[in-house]
Amino acid sequence: xxxxxxxxxxxxxxxxxxxxxxxxxxxxxxxxxxxxxxxxxxxxxxxxxxxxxxxxxxxxxxxxxxxxxxxxxxxxxxxxxxxxxxxxxxxxxxxxxxxxxxxxxxxxxxxxxxxxxxxxxxxxxxxxxxxxxxxxxxxxxxxxxxxxxxxxxxxxxxxxxxxxxxxxxxxxxxxxxxxxxxxxxxxxxxxxxxxxxxxxxxxxxxxxxxxxxxxxxxxxxxxxxxxxxxxxxxxxxxxxxxxxxxxxxxxxxxxxxxxxxxxxxxxxxxxxxxxxxxxxxxxxxxxxxxxxxxxxxxxxxxxxxxxxxxxxxxxxxxxxxxxxxxxxxxxxxxxxxxxxxxxxxxxxxxxxxxxxxxxxxxxxxxxxxxxxxxxxxxxxxxxxxxxxxxx
Amino acid sequence: xxxxxxxxxxxxxxxxxxxxxxxxxxxxxxxxxxxxxxxxxxxxxxxxxxxxxxxxxxxxxxxxxxxxxxxxxxxxxxxxxxxxxxxxxxxxxxxxxxxxxxxxxxxxxxxxxxxxxxxxxxxxxxxxxxxxxxxxxxxxxxxxxxxxxxxxxxxxxxxxxxxxxxxxxxxxxxxxxxxxxxxxxxxxxxxxxxxxxxxxxxxxxxxxxxxxxxxxxxxxxxxxxxxxxxxxxxxxxxxxxxxxxxxxxxxxxxxxxxxxxxxxxxxxxxxxxxxxxxxxxxxxx
Lengths: 391, 285
Fold this sequence. Notes:
The complex is a heterodimer of chains A (391) and B (285). With 391 residues, chain A is of the alpha/beta class. Chain A has twelve helices and 15 strands. In chain A, the strands form four sheets. A six-stranded mixed beta sheet of chain A has the order 9-11-10-13-14-15, sandwiched between helices. In chain A, helix 11 (329-338) links the parallel strand 13 (314-319) and strand 14. The longest helix of chain A has 33 residues, at 213-245. The radius of gyration of chain B is 23 Å and the shape is globular. The two termini of chain B are 37 Å apart. In chain B, helix 4 (118-126) crosses helix 6 (149-165). Chain B folds into three domains: 2-170, Pyruvate-ferredoxin oxidoreductase, PFOR, domain III (Pyruvate-ferredoxin Oxidoreductase, domain 3), CATH 3.40.920.10; 181-213, no CATH class; 215-285, 2-Layer Sandwich (Alpha-Beta Plaits), CATH 3.30.70.20. In chain B, the strands form four sheets. Chain B has a four-stranded mixed beta sheet with strand order 3-4-5-6, with helices on one face. Chain B is of the alpha/beta class. Chain A binds chain B through residues 3, 5, 7, 112-113, 116, 137-138, 167, 169-171, 173-177, 270-271, 273-274, 276-277, 280, 356-359, 386-389, and chain B through 4, 7-8, 11, 16-23, 43-48, 50, 138, 184-189, 194.
C-alpha cells in the first residue's frame, strides 16, 4: 500500500491500471480528460499492458468497447456530458449482450446552456439503459469503485456494464490524499476476466442477433432480474473488498448518523461530503439529523432505502439534476420507493450547471427539514442558490 | 499546479489535504482561482472556500481587477508576488504578509515568468503547515514526473530562493477592495434562450460585439513585426489571423491592430517569404 496525492480522475486511471484492463477506447472530453491522459501515459510507458484505441467519436468508442468486451477482454472507457449523449445508442448494446464494460462518467452539464461544470443531467437519463450506476464521493472511493466495478460487473449473476459517476471538477480535479492498493492484493481480489461466451472466429457464436417479439420480452425480464439480483452482489463485493483493503462503503447506500435520526437528507456524489459537515454540526448542537448517501441509482436500493428511512419524521432529497415540470429524478425514484411509508418528502435542487453547493445551502436544507418535522410549511421543491423568487 | 503541490506538501508534512481549481475562461495567463484545505482529520467538505485563512496572490495586478482578498479573515495571512516589501504593500486589509519577488526568481531559475513554484517557498515561510523540504519534495514529484529531473531541480531551487528571500511583515489595509462588476440577474430577468442583444451587456462582455471591448492584445508576450519590403501581398496572413486584427489595405499591403493581437504567431507561420517575424515583448510599430 502506497500513499499518493491524486485527483479523482487520476485515481480512476490508477484503478483501471490496477484492474489490468486490456482495451481502452477513447475520445477526449472535459472533465474526463485527465483519466485518458494518464492511461495513455501508462500504456505508452509500458506500465500497463493494454491497447489504447482512439476512436472518431464516443459512438465509436462504445462500439469498440462492446466489441472488445465480447472478445473476452477487460474493457474500460470514460466520458462526460455530450460524449455520453453521443454514446446513447451504443450504450444499449452492452447490457442485453451481457458485457461487463466499466465506464467512468465524469458528470458534467449537457448543453445548451453549455458548460463544463458538474451536473447529473448527463447520466440520469441513462438510468433506463440497463447499465449499473454508482455515484462516488471522493478520490479514494473513485479508485476503489473502479476496481470493485469489474468484480461486480463480471460476476456471473450480474454480467452487466457499470458506470462509475463522479462530479466534474469539484471531484474530478480535486487532489486528495489516498491509498493506492497493492497490485498483488488487487490481483487476488480481481482474478482474470473469464467470460463464458467469447466472440471468437475459431469457435463461431452469434452475439446479439435481431430478436423478434417471441423472445425480446423474456430477454428484457432476464435483464430486469439480473439488475435486481445485482443488489446483493453489490453488498457482497463491498464486504469482500473491505476484508482485503479495510475500506467499506456500505454497498448500495451508506447511512451516516442515522441512529435515532428524526430527519435526514439523501445525497449523491460530492454533495454528501458537504452534508456530512452540516450533520456533524447539527448533531453537536443536539439535533437529530442524519444523512443517507445514495450510492447506486441502478440497481436502485428499494428495500435498503425503506429500511433506512423507517421512523423518520421528514426526509429531503438533494437532486443535482432537473426533471423539468417540478421534481428531480432522484426525488421521483425515492418517493416511489417510500410511497406507503407516509414520510413527508421534499425535493432540494442545487449545484445546477456547476453552481457551488455551499455549507450554507446544506444548512438551509436541514433547517427546512427540521421545520418539516414540526409540520411547518416547506415547498415541495426548492432550488437552492437560485436568484429570484421561486413560485 | 501550485495548489496541488501545496496539498501534496501538506500531506508529506503529515496532514490531510485537498486542492482544486476553478476554471473560468480557458487560456494561459487568464485569472484563475484554486483552493486548498489542510486538516489533521479527513476533510469532508466539497465546496469552494469563502473565508480563507490565507490568500496567495500570484499576480499583484489582480488587486486592481478582482476582490482577491474578499472574505479573508481578520487574523488571516497573505503571500504576494511583488517587488514591494510587505509594509509598502496595500491589500485593502491589514494582515501578516510574506512578500516575495517570485517573478524575478522564476526568471532566474526556470527562465520563464511562471511563478507557481517560487510562490510555494514563500508560502512555507508564512505557514508551518508545510516545511520547505516537503514543498521541494512535492515540486520534485509533481514537476519531475511531467517535465523531467532538470525542471524539477530548477523549480525546487525557485521555491528555496523564495523561502530565503521572502520578507515577512504587516501589509497596509488602506485602499478600498476593488469590486468586480458582475451581472447576476434573477431567474425571471435572464433573457429567454439566453439571446443577448448588443446593448444587453451589463458587467459581463457576452453579447454580440463584446470582443470589441475585450482587448486581447494584453495577452501577448511576443509581437509580429511586419517587413513591408519583403511582402508579396499574398494575403495569407490576413486570411489566417484568428483575431481579424490584420487590416487589408487598398493596395493589399497589411496593417496590424495590436489592440487585439495575442501574438499567436500564425501570421508569421503562414507567411511564405518571412515578411513577418515574431519579436519578444509587447511592442507596436
